[in-house]
Amino acid sequence: MDRQILALAVPALGALVAEPLFVLVDSAVVGHLGTAPLAGLALASTVLVTAVGLCVFLAYATTAAVSRRLGAGDRAGAMQMGVDGMWLALGLGVVLAAALWLGANSLVTALGAGGDVARQAVTYLHWSAPGLPGMLLVLAATGALRGMQDTRTPLGVAATGAVVNAVLNITLVYGFDTGIAGSGAGTALTQLGMGALLATVVVRGARRAGARLAPHVAGIVANARAGAPLLVRTLSLRAAILVTVWVATGLGAVPLAGHQIVNAVWGLAAFALDALAIAAQALVGHSLGARDVAGTRAVLRRTLQWGVGAGAVLGLVVGGASWLYVRFFTADDDVRAAAVAALVVAAVTMPMAGWVFVLDGVLIGAGDGVFLAWAGVATFVVYVPAALAVRAWAPDGTAGLVWLWVAFAGLFMAARAVTTGVRARGKAWMVTGA
């Protein structure tokens, strides 16, 4: 069991951290342009990650469906679902890119920014929006490959993309003196290239399995219908993140810039934990497709143990070394102090985060999207009053950012841990068959 989990989780880690690595690189490059560009990047990257995150069902629903078909012995049907998912991703990507480019000013204003911070955020959004079709193709193609229990190919593409993104950002921002616009353009070009590479791999596999490559309306609609509950679940999560950014914006430029650093590190650590959830998705989907209930329970127990243990290790690294690595993001002493204090809070909650991410993966792999949708709404309702209290009564500076992360990484994650934990103890989610 451990070998199976690690064989899927370790390569998946590289693919999962691609987007957080882009944000980290952008933060490090833009951070040295000044506090205003870094604060603007905090807003713009939140909007972008939210747009991509809302479409994560393209990966999750596809992984569950493909792995079930594979477990039931239908390889051609499994690849067909992957192809249909990519067509859906491409269409959504084009629409979202256009909407984001046109609505950049309104979105930044809605988040409470103004002046130079707002101008920097809008510039980044305009130059990075064209990369959305590529990023959504990455999601759909990666979901199909995970379902086929191939996490090595996405790892190779993600590693290549991370290097290319770093080179492009440094070259455009500093070599051509393009400022924050160069950072957005470099990320967009990298995302388009990654999407094209992964889509090519899936298309080749579909041809070998005998699946059709042309758009199949019924299949695309089926993919969209299966992903709808996961969209609601993801919407609740992203709404919580947006509320958190809104609160940080109200606390001032220093807490907002510090929040960008903490959020980037949290995103990297969270996606690292989610690598175990990806293994759980593929293994649970496969075992349920093969009608192996005992095997499903074994996957649940062991992946939870791995999740909590990995969270504890990550917490030690995130908190213990925070004073050192924040120096790579900013030269502002006030921003550094705020980020380090909030990172300690995030570090303490990492084991609980490991529990949450693995349980999410198990239930997504089982196709339990409807429950996850309702649970997501419930946990958001629990979190909002706490976030509003921080906005209203927390002091400015470091203390305000610390209280914000107590609410988000503490209360919000605890609510998710309870709801998914209670569900996993029952049997309603273990539906067998293709």
- Give the helix proportion (percent range): over 70%
Q: How many strands in all?
A: 0
Succession of helices and strands: HHHHHHHHHHHHHHHHH
Overall outline:
globular
Radius of gyration, in Å, reads 21 Å
In this structure, how is the largest beta sheet organized?
none
Strand content: under 5%
Nearest-integer average pLDDT:
85
Class inferred from helices and paired strands: mainly alpha
- Please give the count of helices: 17
Number of domains: 1
Distance between the termini: 22 Å
Unreliable residue runs: none
Describe this structure in words.
With 434 residues, the protein is an all-alpha fold. The chain has one domain (2-425). Helix content is 86%, strand content 0%. It is built from 17 helices and no strands. Helix 3 (35-54) crosses helix 6, helix 4 (57-71) runs parallel beside helix 7 (132-147) and helix 8 packs antiparallel against helix 9. The longest helix has 37 residues, at 253-289. The protein is globular. The mean pLDDT is 85.
Task: Summarize the structure in short.
The chain is an all-alpha fold and 434 residues long. It contains 17 helices and no strands.
Could you list some keywords that capture this structure?
17 helices; 434 residues; mainly alpha
Reconstruct the topology from this structure.
Blueprint: H1 2-16, H2 18-31, H3 35-54, H4 57-71, H5 75-110, H6 115-128, H7 132-147, H8 152-175, H9 180-209, H10 217-251, H11 253-289, H12 293-320, H13 322-325, H14 333-348, H15 350-365, H16 369-393, H17 398-425
Helix pairs in contact: 1-8, 1-11, 2-3, 2-8, 2-9, 2-11, 3-5, 3-6, 3-10, 3-11, 4-5, 4-7, 4-10, 4-11, 5-6, 5-7, 5-9, 5-10, 6-9, 7-9, 8-9, 10-11, 10-16, 10-17, 11-12, 11-14, 11-15, 12-14, 12-15, 14-17, 15-17, 16-17
